Amino acid sequence: MTQLPLSLVAARTALERAVVEARLAYDYSPGSYTYSCLHACRDAEQAVAVLRAALLEQQLAEEGT
Question: What's the domain of life for this entry (predicted)?
């Protein structure tokens, strides 16, 4: 199995950290800004997960041919 590009791994790690930070901000200061930030971070994290899955699927298809 091939490895993912380090930039993609780093992006996912950064997004996961951002979600944790946004959750803490929302817990201690539940305003519209932190709520919006939390949702933006979650959306970005999901987008990276979809990209990662697509890249893995593409790599597996290339290895199979």
Answer: Bacteria
Domain count, the chain: 1
Report helix angle 32-64 to 6-28, nearest 10.
Answer: 160
Q: How far apart, in Å, do the first and last CA atoms of the chain sit? A: 14
31 DSSP assignment: -
In a domain, 1, yes or no: no
- Cα–Cα distances in Å, from 24 out to 14, 15, 17, 33, 50? 15, 14, 11, 13, 25
In the predicted structure, residue 24 carries a pLDDT above the cut 80: yes
pLDDT of residue 14: 81
